[in-house]
Design a protein that fits this description.
alpha+beta; Alpha-Beta Plaits; Cell Division Protein Zipa, Chain: A; six-stranded antiparallel sheet; five-stranded antiparallel sheet; 15 strands
Length: 409
């Protein structure tokens, strides 16, 4: 190795040593500068430095131990419990008085001035205490009517309810029955358009069948929509039962067709016409009343029609026309499904027709103008009155009942 090479190696080693020395010096210089900048000028009161001057003596030393460090982020404020007011002491009661006066627990302590109780006055029912039962079948029968139930939040006058959907419901081909619960009388009753009764429980029934036939699909849809609108107006909870309404109506209509009979007895003149004045005198003597329908009708004690009398000819009886009217025949009519005890009523009607025949010189005949004898009349009574009314009783709709009069209207 030449001297030049040795010299270069020495210079390189010296340069490296100089760089390392310079770096070490810079490191020491920077450490001293950092310590001078970061060194606190006073002790941390939270850390309780050892060089802090001694604190004034106090009753309780709340400083932490020097070796325990409390990080600021872990610090939680101390929870302060609310101070409860001490209960005031109850006034002292003498031992003798305490022994004589029993004290009830505070939660059950009686009122110092209890109200007098009258045993004769029944306790008032709560406002919302309504019966769980439904209207009697005499008012609404689910077999014969499609019944919609409504429970109102607030009581509404009956007249407002009935008049609400009047225009829509009048277009229906079947009657609509309004039934409300009278909370004062505790009973269901029919509602009228002029009633002021406050109603919160309402039942509306659409009749499935009358003498025009069964309910149609269009009428059912119109009625259901009207009930939904009514429920919205009254803010009521409505229940439209999901049943096969049209099938039920068809079944009831088949039953009605089998028993819907009207028995007529004709009294025909033998040549001399019957004068209207005499007809009226005989009818009024028998307790019959001339109505706006042009019929003389006999009623029972409850005001229900038993049978009626009409002109055999086309002219109707009226109070004015009967003074000059003459006719060659009369017809006595009995509406089988609408009359209770139809066989007995038929016998009464037959007896009256015979008395008319004797007074007017007429003959009792059937629709073919053939004379009627006792055997034929007895056959009519049994076969065309007794049997149909027995069928109605078996179906659960007795003849002459409120349901039968609604159904055969």
């Amino acid at each position: 190795m030449t001297e030049l090479q040795m010299g270069l190696i020495g210079l390189g080693a010296a340069a490296v040593a100089g760089v390392l020395g310079y770096n070490k010096w810079q490191e020491m210089r920077q450490r001293k500068l950092a310590q001078a900048v970061l060194k606190p000028h006073h002790d941390d009161v939270l850390l309780g430095g050892r060089n802090a001057p001694p604190a004034e003596p106090s009753a309780v030393d709340v400083r932490s131990e020097p070796e325990i460090r409390i990080e600021p982020e872990a610090f939680e404020p101390e929870r302060v419990e609310p101070m409860l007011a001490e209960p005031e002491p109850e006034p002292a009661v003498p031992e003798t008085a305490a022994a004589e006066i029993p004290v009830a627990p505070p939660a059950f302590r009686a009122s110092p001035d209890p109200l007098p109780v009258d045993d004769d006055i029944p306790p008032a029912a709560p406002v919302n205490a309504l019966p769980a039962g439904e209207p009697p079948v005499e008012l609404l029968d689910p077999r014969l009517e499609y019944v919609v139930a409504m429970d109102l939040v607030e009581a509404v006058p009956a007249r407002q309810i009935v008049r609400s959907q009047r225009e829509v419901l009048h277009r229906l081909g079947k009657p609509v029955h309004w039934i409300g619960y009278n909370e004062a009388a505790r009973e269901w009753q029919r509602l009228t358009s002029d009633s002021e009764l406050e109603i919160r429980r309402l039942r509306v029934g659409l009749q499935l069948v009358n003498r025009l036939g069964p309910l149609s699909d269009g009428d059912l849809t119109m009625f259901s929509n009207a009930m939904r609108v009514l429920a919205d107006e009254l803010m009521a909870v409505v229940d439209l039962p999901a049943i096969r309404v049209l099938d039920q109506a068809a079944e009831v209509d088949r039953f009605c067709a089998a028993v819907d009979l009207e028995i007529g007895l004709n009294l025909i003149s033998r040549g001399i016409p019957f004068p209207g004045t005499k007809i009226r005198a005989l009818a009024e003597a028998a307790g019959m009343v001339l109505g706006i329908d042009g019929l003389f009708t006999r009623y029972d004690d409850d005001g229900r029609a038993l049978f009626s009398l009409q002109n055999y000819e086309n002219t109707q009886f009226t109070a004015d026309a009967i003074r000059t009217l003459t006719t060659h025949g009369l017809t006595f009519l009995l509406d089988v499904p609408r009359v209770e005890n139809g066989e007995r009523v038929f016998v009464q009607m037959t007896d009256l027709a015979r008395r008319f025949g004797e007074a007017l010189q007429g003959a009792l005949v059937d629709d073919n103008r053939q004379p009627l004898n006792d055997a034929q009349l007895d056959h009519i009574r049994r076969e065309f009155i007794g049997k149909p009314q027995a069928t109605m009783a078996a179906f659960g709709v007795p003849a002459g009942s409120p349901r039968a009069r609604r159904l055969f209207s």
